[in-house]
Specification:
This protein is α/β, with parallel strands linked by helices. It has 4 helices and 5 strands; from the N terminus they run E-E-E-H-E-H-E-H-H. It has one domain: Nucleotidyltransferase, domain 5 (2-Layer Sandwich). It is globular. This is Transposase IS116/IS110/IS902 family protein.
Length: about 120
């Protein structure tokens, strides 16, 4: 398969935490952030510092919205993935594995569409 994106970030978003998995040609890095404002800003800076051109995350409840809004201001391409589709992939049982699977998916194929319209 052709490389789609070389610097990607997959986010597994929850009420109190966000797991970020960034994959670049230099390797993979995984970090967990709280959902407090200062930590979300640190997440945004982490993503920018790694040169990520695209971020994908589960559209879990409304927890994704503050992250989307922050990243949108930075002109980073954001893809929202239906959480139901993520849960149907066998073998992944942890937040870290979910974030890793999302980011790995971006390196080999594009998500068919953004699953969320701005409202």
């Amino acid at each position: 398969m052709d490389l789609v994106y070389s610097h990607v970030c997959g986010l597994d978003v929850h009420k109190k935490s966000v797991v970020a998995c960034i994959i670049t040609p230099e390797g993979k890095e995984i970090r967990t952030f709280s959902t407090m404002t200062d930590d979300l800003i640190a997440l945004k800076e982490f993503i920018k510092s790694k040169g990520c051109s695209v971020v994908a995350m589960e559209s879990t409840g409304s927890y994704w919205k503050p992250i989307y809004n922050l990243l949108e201001l930075e002109s980073i391409k954001i893809l929202l993935v239906n959480a139901k589709h993520i849960k149907n992939v066998p073998g992944r049982k942890t937040d870290v594995k979910d974030a890793e699977w999302i980011s790995k998916s971006l390196t080999t194929w594009p998500f068919a569409r953004q699953l969320c319209a701005r409202s």
